[in-house]
Each structure stands twice: as C-alpha cells, then as structure tokens.
Predict the 3D structure of the following.
Amino acid sequence: MIPLLNALLLVSLLAITYQDITERKVFTFLFPLAALLFGILHYLQASSPTFFWVSVGVNLVIVTLIVLLLALYARLKMRRGFLNESIGLGDLSMLYALCFAFTPMPFLIILVGGLFFSLAMHFLLKKHSAFKTVPLAGYLAAFLALTYVANWIGWVDNLYF
C-alpha cells in the first residue's frame, strides 16, 4: 500500500510542478490530494495519532504566521494587494498542504530548503519563461518530489525524525 501512496504522491507533485511552471494554473483538486497523501504517509510514520495532530497543528501555526507577515509586508511596504498580486492561491495551498507532511523540525528544514530551491530555480529559468511571476507551488512540489525520491532510494535516511 505504501508504494501505491508514494506513486500517487509523486504523480500529484509532478502534475503540480508541470501545470504551475507551464500555465501558472493548477487543478484545484491536486492540493487537497497532496495534503491527504502527505498526511497518510506522515501518520503511518508517527508514533501516535496525538503526535501526528500536534505536528500538523504546529506546522499550520508556523505557515499562518508566515502568511500573515507576508500579507502585512505586501500591504504596508509594497503597497500591493496580497492574494493574486503578491502570492497566488496555489502557492498558499501548497504551503498549507505541506503542513501535513512532516514533524515541525523537518518541516522547517524542508520549507526553507524548498524556498531556496525555488529562488535558485527562478533565477536560472526566468529567461526562458513567458511569465514574470514565480511558480512557487511548482518549484516547491519539484523540491518535495526530489526529496521524497531521495528518501525512497536511500540517499536520505529519515524525513520524519
């Protein structure tokens, strides 16, 4: 069953990556599907249901604080609207889907790594893109797909430490 879940997760992450990079539009159902698959895989690794839900709750608080700070920055410093002007709904959906994937410490490490990966990819690929916006959800999904594959083939020991 776990190989099937892994395959479904990889396909959904690759679909998010492809759609966000090529069209900046992602099928809405892919984000809840990714969150569900992240959650199931995390739950199967958790020592108890309580630990799983506490981890998800902490991650949700972290992402919500980041989103609120970004909204304040967009409104006060950039003098722009937040949603669809500073960040897209798909990007927010991806950040919240990621909350179900890991315990808080790996979550923070993977989130920061994914954001640096996204920045690097954007700088490398922006000359070849017709869009001026950053496909954050797509780049994060690509980073997560690479991270999960690295775990499955043994390059990364444990994503849930």
Q: What stands out?
A: The chain has one domain: 2-152. The helical segments are 2-23, 30-45, 49-76, 89-98, 104-125, 136-152.
